Amino acid sequence: MSIFFDSPISDELVPEGEAELLLANIGITEGISNSESGDYRQLLAAVHDVAQHILHLPDYIVRADTDIDTDIYPRENIRRPPPEDQNYGHAWAHKFQIRGSPKGELLKGKTVCLKDNIAVAGVPQFFGTDAIPAWTPDSDATVVTRALDAGADIVGTTICENFCNSTSSFTSAQGTVHNPYAEGYSAGGSTSGGSALVGGGLVDIAIGADQGGSIRVPASFCGCVGFKPTHGLVPYTGISSGDAISDHAGPIARTVTDVALCLDAIAGRDDFDDRTLGAPLHGSTCYAKQLQSSVAGMRIGVLVEGFEHRLVDESVKATVLKAASEFEKLGATVQQVSLPLHIEGPAIWTIQQRIAGTLGLMGLAHGRRGLFSTAFEATRRPWTNESFQKLFPSTKNTIINGLSLMRDYPGLYAKTMNIAQQLRDSYERLFKEYDVILMPTTPFVAPRNLAWKRGDSPMEALKASMGITTNTAIFDVTGHPAISLPVGLSPSNQDDRVRLPVGMQLVAGLWQEQKILDAAFTWESANDWKKFGPLGIETPRLGVKL
After folding, report:
1. Could you tell me the pTM of the whole model?
2. Strand 499-507 and strand 249-253: pairing?
3. What is the CATH number of domain 76-531?
4. Which of the residues 214, 240, 315, 490 is marked catalytic?
5. Where is the Amidase domain (predicted)?
6. CA 116 to CA 177: how far, in whole Å?
7. Residue 154 per-residue DSSP state
8. Cβ–Cβ < 8 Å for 355, 413
9. R_g of the chain, CA atoms, integer Å
10. What is the number of other CB atoms lying within 10 angstroms of the CB of residue 12?
11. CB of 191 closer than 8 Å to CB of 252
């Protein structure tokens, strides 16, 4: 193959005027002259030849972290469960059994399920959609290999929301997931199925992914402990990406101890994922061993702006403040703190995610080193009228928003990321004074699931998720570690006879996972969260009234 081509040009591949048309699409109508047109057409044909050559080379399939194959960890009884074999509506994507290493200690005896955007060799993946066919990965995600090496038994993949693009639990094309505390109510998203199964006690640990709150929101709604670690601490190799800046993977469990054990098992540098270049070596962390049930001397900040949003329900506010006051009883210094830029978090995340998310959905994301799913890319292929129509409105809206923003505001992404860095730096300064800051994970408890179907109003479909990520999404952009800890039960706004879990979010400085885990473990050890709630509780006053 030559790089300088003089072979005939295919009119089908590169029609006459193609260079001019491509430039016209970005508003350049006089960029090349008639005399230059033929040369640029020839050069286009050359680069198409290179593209075809690359496409015909064999793909590079590597077993992340190790050279094991599926004979070491055989997959048993892979099946798409029928309705009678489901839980909480449609929580399972596929059931199967992969037995962990008998030498593994950290997760020995633990059952683990995986969000259905995490690759498991030989198991079809839906990604919450029917807009494209399911595809079957050739290798396991790094977190899968590490969980098995740690002794976990992986028992299935669980429903995720449509393209992981919603914090509701009715958007998956594979079915609605119900809250384990109240049928008909949201389990949250996009790690909906795993959170429901863990919250309901059917599985010990779920490994999920979080790009706007997709671990912490469902954990909050389902009464689980959900941890989004520092960006890059847990490898994303083999997990379908929405945007490399906000990609986070982490555990959901019923206890802080199980979260810490899972984090020890899956965290650490992965040579295939450049997100992890700053992470400690795999196997070097000891989060579980170092858990301390003491916050003596710890400084905890109650973030005023995290409570002030108009959507924050009074009962949720009261419950989280009462939980915060428990830290005082346990020996911590608890004070209200203010960071006004926090309220810009939703706007920053929206612009960053719409633009970056659109590029990802269109197969245009770039600038990262790693191993990528060519099977997913081949299955997704360019969008067609038929496939686009099958997308849930949240994904359609992302693409429409992103295309518009990139066309009309070409410098917007750069400024957005500058302000995101300003906010990251502002949090870091705050964490020099406080070990942990806290706020509600979600502004309200789980709402009812919507009985939405194609053809219904897109606005109605999107309203169900609006405002849920007010306090969660920004920490995906800044990369700070954050946990959702269940701290009480609160009445539903739609039926006060229904009591649903309330989550308290604890956030710490970059790479300060141990501080969060210690604070959460101390609170959990001293309290029965199911006995907490706003009924008859006077809102505690911490410094100044919120």
Report:
1. 0.92
2. unpaired
3. 3.90.1300.10
4. 214
5. 101-517
6. 13
7. E
8. yes
9. 24
10. 6
11. yes
Helix (H, G, I), strand (E, B) or coil at 36: helix
Tokens of 167: 């914090």
Tokens for 226, please give them: 């959900």
Contact call for residues 346 and 420 (beta carbons, < 8 A): no
State how far the alpha carbon of 38 is from the alpha carbons of 14, 101, 402, 443, in Å. Answer: 11, 61, 33, 60
Q: Which of 289, 27, 275 is nearest to 143 (CA)?
A: 275
Per-residue pLDDT tens for 133-192? 999 999 999 999 999 999 999 999 999 999 999 999 999 999 999 999 999 999 999 999
- Provide the token pair at 222: 């389902």
Q: How far apart are CA 246 and CA 312, in angstroms?
A: 24
Amino acid at 422: Q
Cα–Cα dist 188/200, whole Å: 14
Contacts of 415 (CB under 8 A, 6+ apart): none
Element (H, E) at 96: strand 92-98
Q: Establish whether 95 is a catalytic residue.
A: no
Active-site option among 168, 172, 190, 465: 190
Q: Are 373 and 442 in contact (CB under 8 A)?
A: no
Rounded Cα distance between 120 and 428, Å, is: 37
Q: What are phi and psi of 539, to 5 degrees?
A: -60, 120
- Catalytic residue of the set 95, 110, 115, 317: 115
Break the chain into its structural domains and give their ranges. Answer: 1-57, 76-531
Question: Does the pLDDT at position 3 exceed 60?
Answer: no
- For this structure, is 214 an active site residue? yes
| 133 vs 149: CA distance, rounded Å | 31
387 in active site: no
Q: Which residues pair with 542 in a beta bridge?
A: 544
Q: What share of the chain is helix, strand, coil (3-state, %, to 5)?
A: 35, 15, 50
pLDDT tens-digit map of 67-101? 445 678 999 999 999 999 999 999 999 999 999 99
Compute φ and ψ for 115, nearest 5 degrees.
Answer: -55, 145
Buried b (16+ CB within 10 A) or exposed e, 174-213: bbbbbbbbbeebbbbbbbbbbbbbbbbebbbbbbbbbbbb
What are phi and psi for residue 459, nearest 5 degrees?
Answer: -60, -40
Collapsing DSSP states into helix, strand and coil, what is residue 426?
Answer: helix
Helix or strand run (H / E) with residue 505: strand 499-507
Cα–Cα distance for residue pair 380/141, rounded to 1 Å: 19
- Long-range CB contacts (within 8 A, 24+) of 383-390: 387/131, 387/132, 388/131, 389/454, 390/129, 390/130, 390/131, 390/173, 390/454
State the Cα–Cα distance between residues 485 and 505, nearest whole angstrom: 6
